[in-house]
Structure formats: structure tokens, C-alpha cells
Amino acid sequence: MLRNNRNVIVESFKPNFPTEIISEGRVKVLVPELNAFVELPSDYAPSKAPVFYNPVMELNRDLAVLALQAYQRKIDRKISVCEPLTGSGLRGIRFALEVEGVGKTVLSDINEQAFRLASYNVQMNGLARHVAVTKKEANFVLSSHGSPHMRFDFVDIDPFGSPVPFLDSAVRAMRDGGLLALTATDMASLCGVYPRACMRKYGGKPLRTEYCHELAARLVAGCLTTVAAKHDLGVKVVFAHRGEHYARVYATMKYGAKSADESMGNMGFVLHCFKCFHRETKKGLYLVEHSRDCRECGSRLEVAGPLWLGKLFDSDFCDIMEQESRKRRLKFGVRIAKMLSLINNESSAPFTYFVIDKMCDALNLPVPPVKVVIEALRKEGFQASPTHFSSRGVRSEVSAGRLMEMLRGLTKTTASDVEQ
Ligand SMILES: C[S@@+](CC[C@H](N)C(=O)[O-])C[C@H]1O[C@@H](n2cnc3c(N)ncnc32)[C@H](O)[C@@H]1O
Ligand SMILES: [Zn+2]
């Protein structure tokens, strides 16, 4: 007879595949033992196992816990949560157990084994009374919560691939003011390796620039904005971040055609010159009457979008996330603190970033430390900050041409320092 952490008897469950118990945040769950599913070195264990489990996404889940707590603190009442692609249930269980103020929670997974494992994990964590697990298709779960009084305060769409197939029903399942989180792991499409796939899915053109990870988050946010607008919902992006192989966006949703129109006003294009690094933005849904000649060097500008040109981070929201992270003992606490501080700083920084290595490569110069470049820019009166999107990136309103001049100057100074 098995008892859970509240000393309640748990229905026995014997998966027909190797499993192990792991701890993450404040929960313990049963997950597939990934080593048992790797046959070739190239095998990606999380998707080889009968139930999806990816330990590498712990940091993503930690940030999700912090974001949900920040949201709950802001609205200051009990909130309902849905994770309709739950896998082992780990993420949803963490929400229910680690976030104060979480009430009704619905988890679902279409995979029978995942459903059984998530149900077991919910019981093991003593949450059976307010966490429901179903075996229904994600769109079905969301659509059946699309009527008033059934909707959720928070929906987390965390699929393998693109979140787009779930956007319509997710938007309909949101309460007024609710928070929607989206993970997109189809980075090859979003970063411009497969532009047609990106245009088909997200309705925007990607670009293989050095800041493609920021564009990826903006394409996801842009797609959400247009889908939400069809339902007369406005979008405010409060937080976004990149991971090794994904982009993640958090946005609050506001009811009303006016909010939808205002959000659509944040849609537009990025025009980029691959010759001289110049970039500019143009608001609107259509790129009419805009010169495609680079004003710096005359080359042809390439276009990304339509995508979200509005803010990607809300400083207040980041502040609360930072406070919450200090209250918890997270395995990646130090990394998270650094990341949140970087993100908070870039919340008011200019659009896109310059990757110093790429510029120095083009100029055939040795690469100075990013810190030195930022200091030099600030000394000249420019706003400049690092970015969590790239450890070699600098956000600044400086023109690409001026920055390249400065890099030349910096290298000369460093070289003469060495000679002396
Ligand atoms: C990336 S995994 C989820 C990982 C989980 N969110 C976590 O943090 O551990 C995606 C899950 O979605 C499930 N899934 C895929 N398509 C689905 C659908 N249409 N409806 C419901 N579940 C689905 C898969 O079985 C898989 O378990
Ligand atoms: Zn140019």
C-alpha cells in the first residue's frame, strides 16, 4: 500500500516502462528513466520515452512558476490554471504546489501513458482535490472552457514544436486580464532556416539575422496578437525569454475591440541590411510606400514580419519575478537572478541588438569584451545594455555605422595599450 506526502493512500500504478522519481522545485514526481530510451548517441531521449519529460526545461519551468506568482501577486486573488499539454504533469503540479493563490487546476494530455503518469503524480503530491487530470485533446479541453465562468486565469501552452495550433482555443479560454504563456520550439522556422514554414504558421516572415532569437519571440507574440484580435482581445506582452532551443512569451489578454485595435498598432516590420548591419522598424500590417534601400549604404533591405514591435518585457512584472526568485531556493537560482536582472535592464532598451563578434568579424578586428563596448557607448551618451538573448549582444540606439567606427577606435586604443 502506497501513501503520498499527505499520508493518503494512492492508487497503485505500475508503468510498463522504466521510471525514476525526481525532485524539481518543491515537488517529487515519477518520470521515465531517460537513459533507458537512448539507443543511438543522436537519440533525443525526452521524445523517445513513452511520456515526454525534459530535465533541461527545469529553468523554463522555474521561470513559469515565478511568472505565475508575479501575475497572481498583481491581481491578488485566487486563480485558475490550465496546462493542456502536460506530459508527466510536472509543470502543472509545480504551479499548484509552489504558487500561492492557485485554485482550480486542469491538466491534460492526449497520450494514455502521460495521462496515467500525470494522474499518479498529482495524487503523489496530495493534490487530487483541486487538480483535475484528463486525457482529452488540448483544443477540446480549452474549447470546453471557452464559455463565461469556465475560463482560466492562466493557460500554459508548452508543446513540442509550435504553439500555433492551440492559439485560437487558448485565447477563447482566457478570462479578461488572464495570462497566457507560449513555448515555441520550432526555432529553425522562427529563425529563418525554413521561412516558408514560419510564414505558414506564424503569418510573419523570419530573418536569419544575428538577433533572430528576439525576432522569434516577436513572431510568436505577433501571431498571438493577430489571433487574439480576431476574438476582440488585446495583448500585452509582459515577459519573454529564449532558451537553448525555444522562445517563450507571456502575455496578458484584455477583452474589447479597442484593446485589440491598440495591440494591432504594435504590429510591424523590421528592415535589415545584411551589408552594413543597419536595421529599422516600420509599424503597420502592410509594407507599402517604404523604401527598401538601406539609407546607410544603399544595399537592399531585407524584411521580417509582420511581427510584434511592442515591448517584450514589463519592468514591474520582472521586479516581482525577481522578488519571488529571492524567496525560493531554486536549483538554477543564481542563473535565474542574473537572467532576470538582464531582462529587467533591457525592458526599456532599444529594439534589436548588435552582436559585437559578428561586426568585428566583418571588420576583421579582434573582439573587445561586451562590457568595454557598453562603457564606451555610454561615455558617448548612448543608451547601451547587454541582452539575455545573446551574451555577445549589445542593445543601443547607436547607428550601426557609428558603432563600427567605435569598434575600430576601441581596437586601436587596446592595441596601443598593449604596445606601451
Ligand atoms: C513538450 S510535452 C509537454 C511537457 C510539459 N509541459 C513539461 O513541462 O514537462 C508535450 C505534450 O503534449 C502532448 N500532446 C501532443 N499533442 C497533444 C494534443 N493535441 N492534445 C493534448 N496533448 C497533446 C504530448 O503527449 C506531450 O506529452
Ligand atoms: Zn546598409
Write a compact overview of the structure shown:
By secondary structure, the protein is an alpha/beta fold. The protein is built from 15 helices and 17 strands. The N and C termini lie far apart (77 Å).
Descriptive account of the structure:
This protein is of the alpha/beta class. It contains 15 helices and 17 strands. Strands 7-6-5-8-9-11-10 form a 7-stranded mixed sheet, sandwiched between helices. A 3-stranded antiparallel sheet has the order 13-12-14. The protein has a 3-stranded antiparallel sheet with strand order 15-17-16. β3 and β4 form a beta hairpin. The chain starts with a strand and ends with a helix. Zinc ion (ZN) is lined by residues 273, 275-276, 278, 294, 296-297, 299.
Which class of secondary structure composition applies to the elements? alpha/beta
Instruction: Tell me the radius of gyration.
Output: 23 Å
Shape: globular
Instruction: Count all strands and give the number.
Output: 17
Share in β-strands? 15-25%
| Order of strands in the sheet with most strands | 7-6-5-8-9-11-10
First-last Cα distance = 77 Å
Helicity range of the residues?
25-40%
Q: How would a textbook summarize the main sheet?
A: 7 strands, mixed
Question: Could you say which small molecules are bound to this protein?
Answer: S-adenosylmethionine, zinc ion
> Oligomer, anyone?
single chain
Mean pLDDT, nearest integer?
A: 94
Uncertain residue segments: none
Q: What is the number of helical segments per DSSP (H or I, 4+ residues)? A: 15
